[in-house]
Amino acid sequence: MSAPGISTRAARMVGEPSHLVEAHTTAVADPFDPQRNPQGYVNLGTAENELVSDLLLPRLRAAREVVASDTHYGSLHGTDEFRSAVADLLTSHAGRPVDGSRLVAMSGTSAVLDALAYALCEEGEAVVVPAPFYGGFDVDFTARARARLVPAPLSSGDGFALSARAVTDAVEQARAAGTTVPAVALISPHNPTGRVYAADALREVVDATRALGVHLVVDEIYARSVFGDVVFTSALSFEDEHVHVVWGFAKDFALSGYKVGLLHTRHDDVLAAVTAQAYLSPVSNDVQRTLVGLLGDARWVADFTAESARRLAVSHALVVDRLAELGVETAGAQAGVFAWIDLRAQLTEQTWAAERALWSKLFDDAHINIAAGELFHGDEPGWFRITHAADPVHVTEALDRLGRVLAHDE
After folding, report:
1. Which tens digit of pLDDT belongs to each residue from 195-219?
2. What's the pTM?
3. Total domain count for the chain?
């Protein structure tokens, strides 16, 4: 007799492997090195900040106190000490006090978003997301909760500016088609464009979602990675019960491997529902203790944030200037670790098939890993996301290779 199978819902989760993950796996298995592997892959497809290791590692290697409670079970949604330390940090960019008791810690922002989707949506219900948007939402909102994602298209003509009208139209159209829409999700600052939303535009979406009677989930994972001459407005500054803010240490502190995400909500039922799910994916006490020590040095945090922003600005300028020499424009990022670049003119035709063909040429022939726009649910083929927060030698090599591909296609 053969072994028993798995459940249908588990089989649905397995599905096809993520294209982003497949490309990343191939690229990191054969990495570019100027001396040892000059033909290897240059990986600029993974959204990580590789510019601040010299600032972080000495702090993380330093000896720290370990107490008995660190080795035992603790509060599975985050210790009081940890949530208080994070609340102090978030207060610094929220513009108003953040209450640590309204925070839930889980093992990464994907875990938090998954728990929120499970708490807010019944299977088959929709979450409206301004598009283009981070392709990881496909897993975060759909894999376990079985929600659907409905894009609210933004326009390249105005730099992908956030539009409450686009959000409202998408919600109303989905409802008219018989789909229940319990939530809207934003990424602020935006992934993949790197744009910082204007305060008025954000407030209009907060007001619109309240009027529509839906939850608003705001992923602020790049909140402290703003480098442009703009002011970032956190959704934490709004005291609306229907607004739920997600943040983590992966991007702003370049600690993606630590897997720490947090939810802030003023909604008691949502807080309780996500807190209950933290039982399944808590953050280790040891990691929490390490981060409490890191956040306890306010001067270091301020200096680190400022220096990280300075380095991000320099690395972004390198990409923009070199692309301009190649005749390629970008969306003008103001935050984050990537640029949203316009290769529409390089497509043989304005189709997703042509975009896939260009991506394959860049990946298979030139060994450059960047993320194709189709993965971000936009409505215009030809946009690509390129991570600039990497070794400048690697970034320059990738752009040189891109230039050769574009010159060959002329």
Report:
1. 999 999 999 999 999 999 999 999 9
2. 0.96
3. 2
